[in-house]
Design brief:
Elements: E1 6-10, H1 14-25, E2 29-33, E3 43-48, E4 53-57, E5 60-62, H2 65-68, E6 74-77, H3 81-91, E7 100-103, H4 110-118, E8 123-127, E9 132-138, E10 142-148, E11 152-156, H5 162-172, E12 177-179, H6 184-187, H7 192-204, E13 211-212, H8 224-242, H9 254-257, H10 263-272, E14 283-286, E15 289-292, H11 297-300, H12 303-316, H13 322-335, H14 364-368
Parallel strand pairs: 1-2, 1-6, 2-5, 3-10, 6-7, 7-8, 11-12
Antiparallel strand pairs: 3-4, 8-11, 9-10, 13-15, 14-15
Helix pairs in contact: 3-4, 7-8, 7-12, 7-13, 8-10, 12-13
């Protein structure tokens, strides 16, 4: 039986703040690896959606991996997809083979990046969906926990101790946590990688402009066109899943997940979700107008480390994805990037993404036996 005492969180976004408070509040030591240690207080305050205040204490804060990584039993990456490989590379010299390394975002290519940087012998795990919806209130000091999950699921490679990890996270996060049968069941998600790009395409593609006279509410103003795009993209994703040797029921369709039957009911459901209230489209003010912010994670993460990964799996399996292609082509043009050309991932910017081919995964065996 393994005893986990110390968790090192890498990254300081909303999830980093919230997990630091929650884990330390439940009796475990928390270290923090951040690029901005001077901006952090050791005391973290989080207010949840029930107006409950969570007080946490961080034992050690540093921007130097050698100061916070070696003594950690669990290392938990709370960084966006475009920083996962960079973070793994930085911590690699200080990680022991017995340390469990995981990510709150598995869909960005974490498992193949970790194998590339740390070797296939390393213990690896990842959450299927993020544990919380969180927002920073005051950086390094406080955050809002906007919504809980009723259950958490984690997947791991053959070296990870999922039984012990599920027991740990059930206690540390005060949420029942169960193990998935295969790491792909954590990696392949139709959450943000489909949800955000589908909404952006559905919302903005009718307009030939990047500048608008209002800020759009991302979810509260969700429309049927966005639901139509999302349902079609998810149908293509589900066809990809059906070709893989995994338990497909672990990744339900978005209609199932949101307890909806059709376009209209999905629109109504997404508009009503309390944790989504007030979230706006990524835009920056320009005088009295608003311009789409292409530096936001909706673009820098959900396309190269989300939708493109799904597309790369489709290519591996020779599965056509016409709606996903349409969304990628429209968004990449506005990002001034080139990933997809005539259905193939050979654009000049594809090396900046998390697609499986970048990590020498060229067959189903390569993918399944990572």
């Amino acid at each position: 039986m393994r005893n986990y005492h110390t968790v090192c969180i890498c990254g300081g976004g909303g999830l980093g703040h919230t997990l630091a408070a929650k884990i330390s509040k439940n009796g475990y030591q928390v270290h923090l690896l951040t690029g901005h240690p001077a901006r952090w207080s050791k005391h973290i305050l989080v207010e949840d959606c029930n107006q409950v205040t969570i007080n946490g204490e961080i034992t050690q804060i540093s921007d130097r991996p050698e100061e916070v990584i070696p003594s950690a039993d669990i290392i938990l990456l709370c960084v966006p997809g475009y920083l996962i490989q960079q973070t793994l590379h930085a911590i690699a010299p200080y990680v022991s083979s017995g340390t469990e390394i995981g990510s709150v975002i598995s869909s960005g290519g974490f498992f193949w990046m970790a194998c590339h940087e740390l070797g296939k012998e390393q213990r690896l795990f990842g959450f299927q969906r993020v544990p919380y919806i969180s927002r920073v209130r005051e950086y390094g000091r406080s955050a809002e926990l906007k919504g809980y999950k009723s259950m958490l699921k984690i997947g791991g490679n053959s070296n990870s101790d999922l039984e012990e990890l599920t027991s740990f996270f059930s206690k540390a996060l005060e949420t029942p946590t169960i193990a998935l049968g295969h790491y792909l069941e954590a990696t392949l998600t139709n959450s943000n990688p489909l949800l955000h790009p589908s909404r952006i395409y559905g919302m903005l593609s009718p307009f030939d402009t990047d500048t608008y006279d209002k800020e759009f509410l991302f979810y509260e103003e969700w429309d049927d066109r966005s639901s139509e795009v999302l349902i079609e993209c998810d149908s293509e994703f589900q066809r990809i899943l059906s070709r893989l040797p995994i338990h497909q029921e672990e990744i339900p369709s978005l209609l199932q997940y949101y307890e909806s039957e059709d376009v209209t009911s999905l629109t109504r459901k997404i508009r009503s979700i309390e944790a989504f209230k007030g979230i706006k489209m990524a835009m920056v003010a320009q005088g009295d107008r608003f311009k789409v912010d292409y530096t936001n994670r909706y673009f820098t993460e959900d396309i190269p480390f989300g939708l493109l990964i799904i597309k790369s799996l489709g290519n591996l399996l020779k599965e056509d994805t016409p709606m996903i292609d349409q969304v990628i082509l429209w968004i990449q043009e506005r990002m001034r990037k080139q990933y997809l050309i005539a259905g193939t991932l050979k654009g000049k910017d594809i090396g900046e993404s998390g697609v499986i081919q970048n990590f020498n995964i060229n067959t189903l065996d390569d993918l399944y036996n990572l």
